[in-house]
């Protein structure tokens, strides 16, 4: 094979991974134990985590290093995609440290500085620190201020720190602006990484490759050929122990404002002229800026919200939302939301995007489905009583990551019988290696300073402005009692009516 004939193409993004100290606020909590520590351990096994690093957990629980390491080991044993290697683990745990402290106390931040400098001296690390807030978003302001007051924004050698904050950034436009203002006073925008783990999923990353590395899709990717797009994010679980958070959030804030709008942006964005992080983020921002506002009484036409009622999940009876512990008996918080969205730009004029997400649905699944327009009603589609099914390109984010293109084909035989068939690609069948977890890719990107998959301040606030219009419309024009859907079903009949009024149907996942 001649040079240049290799059918694979590797594109380098971002700078090299730098030695660092990762300080995890909420280090003894669920996110650290279930996601962050296993992700870092997997990066070590894959050879992408440099040997020069340290991990310092911060939490209210009074733990010693040994106890913290035991908690991390249990998390790796239970949640890591790769099995625990005793030899590798021995080296990994020696770089795990813990410091008790509350985020509301300035002493904690001075202790972090002292402890980090001691660790960095022992391990010969530069003062290159990453602060990860694995804590409720309400703690963002307190942590940012504490970091500033303790002089942790830059290390002693002048290296600027990075901060990773979890969604949601605020609960409406005003609160998001307040949080971003505080972050902006303490850190430069290039130091702030607003994380959305959905953007780290393998299939989500592959959306741009599917669109812009294949000549067959992009010419059809517009209102001339696409009838509509459906995005479904269904969750098999209920609210669990998160009633306090969910009563303040609901499905619109929890899922749509960040995860689903970002998926929509990747599907709808214009081709970026390069893979520079801000070029890609500019393209995503333009989609958000083009969303048609849903205001006032329009919320009754283009949105549906509902709560799950008692039902059966996997043979287990579950209570309705308002009977969950910690939920108000008269709660108006939605556990399901469906929207009809329009993007008012040249490419997508008149193409509806239907999105839905909910708790206690029949299965855990995330799918983006692009449905193309019908072929003309002639030849094989001449029977108006039995029209051909449309072509659909479905992108499965979870489970069984992959893509599927539904086309029409003739059945073998003497008669002309046309049936739908699927051209299917699954990561698990094509590639021998398991896909990295989302947090693995995202943590690696922060260490290398690549912000492509992270939310920028302007995008966060534009998204919140659009969402806030809906929230205000619900408050002014919403009903006293929300529709209900049985736990274990695909949502309320009102959601079916919304899409069926346009002579379309929700896909069966």
Task: Describe the model.
The protein is α/β, with parallel strands linked by helices and 509 residues long. It has 2 domains: 20-166, NAD(P)-binding Rossmann-like Domain (Rossmann fold, 3-Layer(aba) Sandwich); 199-438 and 457-500, Dihydrodipicolinate Reductase, domain 2. The chain is built from 15 helices and 17 strands. The chain has helices at 30-46, 65-79, 86-93, 106-123, 140-149, 173-186, 202-212, 243-246, 250-268, 277-289, 299-302, 427-430, 438-448, 457-477, 493-500, and strands spanning 20-25, 53-59, 96-100, 129-133, 162-166, 192-195, 226-234, 303-309, 311-313, 316-318, 336-342, 352-358, 365-372, 392-398, 402-410, 418-426, 484-486. The strands form 3 sheets. Strands 16-15-14-13-7-12-11-8-17 form a 9-stranded mixed beta sheet, sandwiched between helices. A 6-stranded parallel beta sheet has the order 3-2-1-4-5-6, with helices on both faces. Strand 14 and strand 15 form a beta hairpin. The longest helix has 21 residues, at 457-477. It is globular. It starts with 19 loop residues before the first strand and ends in a 9-residue tail after the last helix. The model is unreliable at 1-14 (pLDDT under 50).
């Amino acid at each position: 094979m001649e040079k240049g004939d290799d059918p694979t193409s590797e594109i380098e993004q971002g700078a090299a991974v730098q030695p660092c100290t990762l300080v995890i606020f909420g280090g003894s909590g669920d996110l650290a134990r279930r996601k962050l520590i296993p992700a870092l351990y997997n990066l070590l096994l894959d050879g992408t985590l440099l040997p020069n690093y340290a991990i310092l957990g911060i939490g209210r629980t009074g733990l010693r290093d040994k106890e913290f390491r035991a908690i991390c080991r249990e998390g790796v044993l239970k949640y890591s995609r790769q099995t625990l290697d005793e030899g590798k683990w021995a080296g990994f745990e020696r770089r795990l440290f813990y410091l008790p402290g509350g985020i509301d106390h300035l002493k904690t931040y001075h202790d972090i500085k002292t402890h980090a400098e001691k660790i960095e001296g022992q391990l010969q690390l530069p003062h290159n620190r990453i602060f990860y807030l694995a804590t409720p978003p309400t703690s963002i302001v307190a942590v940012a201020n504490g970091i500033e007051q303790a002089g942790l924004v830059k290390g002693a050698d002048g290296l600027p720190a990075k901060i990773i904050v979890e969604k949601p950034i605020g609960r409406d436009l005003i609160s998001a602006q307040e949080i971003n203002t505080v972050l902006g006073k303490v850190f430069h925008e290039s130091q702030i990484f607003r994380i959305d783990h959905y953007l780290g999923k393998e299939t989500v990353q592959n959306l741009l490759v599917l669109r812009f590395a294949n000549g067959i899709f992009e010419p059809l990717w517009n209102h001339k050929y696409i009838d509509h797009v459906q995005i479904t994010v269904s969750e098999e679980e209920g609210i669990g122990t998160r009633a306090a958070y969910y009563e303040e959030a609901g499905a619109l804030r929890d899922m749509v404002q960040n995860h689903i709008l970002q998926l929509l942006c990747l599907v709808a964005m214009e081709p970026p002229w390069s893979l520079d992080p801000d070029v890609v983020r500019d393209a995503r921002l333009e989609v958000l800026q083009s969303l048609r506002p849903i205001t006032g009484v329009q919320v009754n036409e283009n949105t549906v919200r509902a709560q799950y009622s008692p039902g059966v999940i996997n043979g287990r009876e579950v209570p309705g939302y308002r009977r969950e512990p910690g939920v108000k008996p008269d709660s108006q918080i939605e556990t399901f939301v469906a929207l009809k969205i329009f993007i008012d730009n040249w490419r997508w004029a008149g193409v509806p995007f239907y999105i839905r997400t909910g708790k206690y649905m029949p299965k855990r699944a995330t799918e983006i489905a692009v449905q193309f327009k019908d072929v003309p009603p002639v030849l094989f589609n001449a029977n108006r009583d039995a029209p051909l099914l449309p072509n659909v390109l479905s992108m499965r984010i979870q489970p069984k990551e992959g893509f599927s293109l539904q086309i029409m084909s003739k059945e073998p035989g003497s008669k002309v019988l046309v049936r739908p068939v699927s051209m299917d690609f699954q990561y698990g069948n094509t590639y021998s290696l398991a896909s990295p977890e989302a947090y693995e890719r995202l943590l690696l990107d922060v260490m290398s300073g690549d912000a492509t998959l992270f939310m920028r301040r302007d995008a966060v606030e534009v998204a919140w402005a659009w969402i806030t219009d809906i929230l205000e419309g619900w408050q002014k024009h919403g009903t006293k009692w929300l529709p209900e859907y049985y736990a274990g079903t695909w949502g309320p009949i009102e959601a079916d009516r919304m899409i069926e009024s346009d002579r379309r149907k929700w896909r069966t996942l």
